[in-house]
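Provenance and format

Records in this collection were gathered into a single text stream. Each protein contributes a sequence line and a token line. The two records reproduced below are adjacent in the stream.
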Amino acid sequence: MSPLTFSSQQRRVLSVILVPAFMSLLSVSIVNVTLPAIETSLETGTSGLQWIVSGYALVFGVLLVSAGRAGDVWGRGKLFVAGLIVFGLGSLAAGLAPTILILNLARVLMGIGSGLLNPQVTGMIQQFFAGELRGRAFGLFGGVVGVSVAVGPLLGGALVALLGNEGGWRWSFLVNVPIAVVAVLAARWLLPDDAWRAAAGSGPAPLGTGAQRRKTDFDPIGMVLLALGTLFVMLPFMEHSAGWWVWLSLVIGVAIVWGWTRWERRYSERGRSPMVDMKLFKTRSFSNGTLLIGLYFMGYTSIWLLVAQYLQNGLHHTALAAGVIGLPAALAGAVAAPIAGRYVTRVGRVMVMWGLTLVVAGLVLSALVVAMHSHGVSEWWLLLTLGFAGLGQGLVVSPNQTLTLAEVPLAYAGSAGGVVQTGQRLGTAIGIALITSITFSLVAVSGWDVAVALGFGVVIVVVLAAMAVGAADLGAGRR
């Protein structure tokens, strides 16, 4: 068997974990184009609609590291299946919701399910793949991430077009239910026995020491502290319309996260197995990669919300048309990510820089298309220009994931993957809050064309900041 060929066991693992990962990430973006239909159907206002998006993202982000550590300790297969069951129940409740309150509670349940299952995906890739095969596996996962972001609006728009406002938004949730059921059965049947046991066996020794492995424990206080800190940090960006007082939670959250880092250090010094070993952040590839992808998601995920609002509210296109705009980007990312995964271990962080350059080029061209729309340039040129951004996405997410986790011990694969994904969720929450606020505040003054072009400009600045982190990492590596 070729060293670059997946074994039958590895193929089974990928077949089980990638479809649910796609499903849960799709639920982040699919609501972008179904919100107007939900508003009409349930007769709700802006606040209710806001929590459809933010409630899911908030709970999802809060749970990632804790769930990753739980998978490390109790077995990733168990947490993966638990997440699938919770996500499926939440999707069923969302699709049948009679009121906006029930829908928002159901979305929170869906977020819990996603938060439980997603860290197990990266953890199992770390567990069952190594070397270039790990890069290829993360490449496939990166394709799933890119496609889910861009295909979500397309699928949501298609359902609304086919089934009408009422049936369309409900089936955007109900479609997850049979997928979750099949995925649970497939996991029980296809996942290897090792997936159901603690991957670490016994607890890891402190990083950078020759100590013996320690008895694994769950570090419940560390988990509670980080969950609360993440909650308080994300809250003002989710509920930024509540008033100035909500920003106090940001200060509280930062203080709690600082307390969490102190707790983890002391926990490790007492000979216990912490939730996240703070020495991980002294590993350049891990700390720089986590910061880079957090900045990247701060910018990139706002693109599709801006595009959906621009086409529907600004240019009065249908939800389906708004979703079609992202299709070339999704296809480009889906093709590029697996190819990038084959070569990332040889090329290194330079590949991520190429991807970021393509994203910036696509955004510059997209901003020009939107700015020139009033002078006769068709908005459908965005199909091409955003395609460059999608191609860049394929060279950024999965290669960065591979490089960021390359030096992480297997015993911390789940929690370290959770840290990376938490950075992505924090970046997404902050970026959507800031970039959409800037853009929509300009609409009344300058019109949709100028406002969205400037919104793309803000995204470009954020992606350039991610490029600066990548350049610094490359420079440090050469030194």
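Adjacent record:
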Amino acid sequence: MPPEVPSATAVPSALRTRRCVRHATREAAGKCPACGGFFCRECLVEHDGRLLCAPCLARLAAAEAGPRRPPVGKRIRSGATLLAGAFALWLLFVGLAGLLLKLPPAFHDGTVWERPEFGKDEPEK
């Protein structure tokens, strides 16, 4: 004699006896595979083909959007840009220093304006 198979109405399913973790008056519609909690329809969200609760989905999104390193090409490009900028500033300062060295000493002393070629010592006509 085969064993009796109970009907679906005789054996309550686990979801019918469970209540939502957040809403105690609502029946659970599903179980979150990440945390194992039972949740109602409003608390579950489908993500990548599976149902997740809101806190687990938030943790998953934070882990995916966490601190990521930029690609190697971008890091090399930014480093090269920094070095090129530093080299350009160095060239600018070296050029200015060379220009200041070419000025006559009278300019540095402040006596260049008192020289006769600027017309101060010449008598007016």
